Amino acid sequence: METSRKVEVEYGSEIWGQLEWKEGEQVQHSICKRILELRSSASNAFVRGELGLWRLKARRDWLRLKFYRKIINMDDSRLPKIVLELEQDIIRKVGINNISYLWTSRLFSMLEEYDINAIDLYQDNWEKLIRCKIEAKENAIWSNEINSNVKLKNVCYQDMKGKIKMELYLKDDRNREGKMLLVKLRSGSHFLNIETGRHLGLHRCERKCDCCDMNETEDEKHFFIYCKLYQKEREELFNYISNVIKCDFWLLDDVLKMKWLLSCNQFAVEHEIVIAVEKYVQRSHSKRTWKLYKKTR
Q1: Are residues 193 and 100 in the same domain?
Q2: How far is CA 155 from the centre of its chain?
Q3: Contact 247, 240 (CB under 8 A)
Q4: Which sign, positive or negative, has the C-alpha torsion 195, 150, 114, 124?
Q5: Number of domains observed in the structure of the chain
Q6: 140, 160, 180 — which closes off a domain?
Q7: Are residues 220 and 121 in the same domain?
Q8: pTM to 2 decimals?
Q9: Structural contact between residues 181 and 170, judged by C-beta atoms closer than 8 angstroms
């Protein structure tokens, strides 16, 4: 998405890219879900957040602002500069609201949308200033989408991740199967009954764990902390984390445990914990699959 395909999709968008393009956004989300091996019903905001991607509209707006900056620095004899100044003269005469179809009119509306002052484009650090303002708006839109998603609320995704940023654990392929299973659990669009039961029309209280006798809902917390089927794997993981963080992981409350287990923000300092969690998820998932297979025989 960051290279050839994005170039094709955005070709010439400095001129035409001022409007919403829902089909284009759908294409980006669809490709992202394929990359992360998620269902089509997975949250669009989640995949953008994990892969560190803005909406295509924000990308096009960024390109248009860069193009505008390029025009205003052109020699006065250049045709783009002449056209820009003509449009600005027209806007001053008739008002921006009366001639909104002009490229310059839409550009000024975009500056207002992102709270950008025209003078910002003349600063030495203009690129950093503009990018920060677009990024702030994208993060605000993304955060609202996250907060309105029940599945992501259940896994406290907003607490684990504060902004759109590429997750570095996705670049490590030493345990690809475990990594992709962890992605599913972080997204809330996974293999546990709390999710699959929803598609079957089961009430939340009916989505019990089929792998133990605890009579509990099979959600992320049950899978990581309580299910008896994974007791051996859990003891290995929790003891390992305790050694790494120099603290008894068993004594943490469930909320903190889940934040440690599902959050990958500690990558730079303690990446071995992420690897250990991926290993736990992979082994437990295999154990669960085999258990359910035997029950159907």
Answers
A1: no
A2: 14
A3: no
A4: negative
A5: 2
A6: 160
A7: no
A8: 0.87
A9: no
Of residues 33, 17, 29, the one with CA closest to residue 68? 17
The values of phi and psi at residue 77, to 5°, are -85, -10
C-alpha–C-alpha distance, residues 42 and 47, integer Å: 8
Are residues 184 and 107 part of one domain? Answer: no
Are both 177 and 290 inside the same structural domain? yes
Helix (H) or strand (E) holding 176: helix 176-187
CA within 13 Å, CB half, 142: 25
Count of Cβ atoms closer than 10 Å to residue 29 Cβ = 21
Question: Same domain, yes or no, for 150 and 181?
Answer: no
- In terms of residue numbers, what domain contains 32? 4-160
DSSP 3-state of 92: helix
Dist. CA 123–CA 10, nearest whole Å:
26
**Cβ burial 58-67 (10 Å sphere, 16+ → b, else e):** bbbbbbbbbb
Tokens (6 digits) for 191: 């293999």
Element (H, E) at 293: helix 267-296
Residues 22 and 156 both lie in one domain: yes
The residue whose two tokens read 């009916």 is 206
- What pLDDT sits at residue 260? 87
For residues 277 and 261, give the distance between their C-alpha atoms in angstroms, rounded to a whole number: 7
Mean pLDDT by 10 residues, the chain (297 residues): 59 81 91 94 94 93 92 93 92 82 88 88 88 95 92 80 89 92 94 93 94 94 96 96 91 90 63 91 97 86
